[in-house]
Structure formats: C-alpha cells, structure tokens
Design goal:
With 243 residues, this protein is mainly alpha-helical. The protein has a single domain, classed as Glycerol uptake facilitator protein. It is built from ten helices and two strands. Strands 1-2 form a two-stranded antiparallel sheet. A hairpin with a 2-residue loop joins strand 1 and strand 2. Helix 3 packs antiparallel against helix 4.
Amino acid sequence: MDILFAEFIGTTILLLLGIGVNANTSLKNTIGNNDSAWVLVTMAWGLSVFIAVFITGQFSGAHLNPAVTIGLAFAGKFSWALVPTYIIAQFLGAIFGSWLAYIIYIDHYRLTSDEQTVRGSFCTGPAIRNYKNNFFSELVGTFVLVFAIFFIVEPNIEIDGDVVNFGLGALDALPVGIVVWVIGMTLGGTTGFAINPARDFGPRLMYSLLPRKNKQPDWGYSWIPVFGPLVGATLAALLYNSL
C-alpha cells in the first residue's frame, strides 16, 4: 500500500468511526443516545485510533494527525519533505470519513433539528467559550499525546537499509489508543479534545457543505483546534529533544 494512500485510508477509518460514535450518542432516535455518552465517546475515539493505526501503521506509520506529523518532524524523526503530502492525505481522509459517517446516519441527521447538536457530531466546540483557555486546553492535550508517542513507538519503516519513517506501528497501536482515551476522559471536558487539526477541520468543512438550512459551522472558533494542537506537538518535540 502506498504510504500516502495509507494515511488517507487510516484517517478515513478514524473519522468514520469517531464521527460515527458522535452521531450515535447525540442525534435523534439513535440507539446510543443515553446518559453514558461521554464514556462511550472517549472509549470509541481511543479504539478508533487503535483500529486505524493497526490497519495502516505498517505502511505509513499511521500518523493520522498533522500535529503528530509535525511533532515527529520537529523531533528529527520524520522527513520534512513528506510533511505536506502527509497532511493533505490526512485532511482528505478526515473529510471523506466524516462524509461516510454522515451517509450512514443520514436519516437521523434529517430528524435532528438542533444545529448545535448536528455540528457537535462533526467537530469540536468549547463548553465555555474562552479562546485563551480553549487554546491552552488543546495545546496541553496534544502535548500529552505527542510526548507519550515519543516514548511508545519505534521507527518502523525501512527502505534500502535506512529507516525513513517514524510512526505508530501496529504493535504500539493499542497503547496510543489508550492515551487518546485517557486524554478524552480527563482533559476533554473543556473543548471536546480535538487534539488533531484534521479531525476537527475536515469534518467542520464537511458539515459546512451539507444541504442543511441554518448551518452554524462556527468558523470563528475553528482556528483553536488547528493551531492549539500544532503548538502542543511542537513543544512536546522540543522537550523530548532536550531530554
């Protein structure tokens, strides 16, 4: 499998399952809409990372997250030359995966009139809108994710005797999924723990393109789950290198 196609497929799977659990726990007349939603959401996102990484890790390293890609590049463990194409593949996969989840739940989307609920199934938003604190929450959550990844994973792609990639290989898929799950349960209550620019921006763009009246994509907030994770990943790489 081509490495960029693997990133596309992996991010598609991640967002299909992730947006799927959001839809299942929030839309009208779904079976999963109940009081235990947050436990289900955080667990499902963690396991979605595990499944997506397990499938594609052997091919691309399964970054599936621009913040992870940039963090690894800043740490000198991933080629900067591959960063732009990886990020493009991740965003395209996020858009496609969220579209697939929408198609699966389309009848429930049609029954759900509350636009905040519909938007919330696609992308994140703050429990309390305070851009400074929201940014800090995304920064810290992603810092924890990327910093943990540095200690979990090993180089896993070798070409002509040289290791050319560093990512979330199959054997490390479960612990990385657990890290995401724990971040969601502990730090996710403020902003919904995007901790991944593609995870938020791709579905937000998909939502903005849906044939719905009174759409509220909230572009004014959208920079938080993009730049917060990028800064957090960069700081994690800098600290890791200094150690």
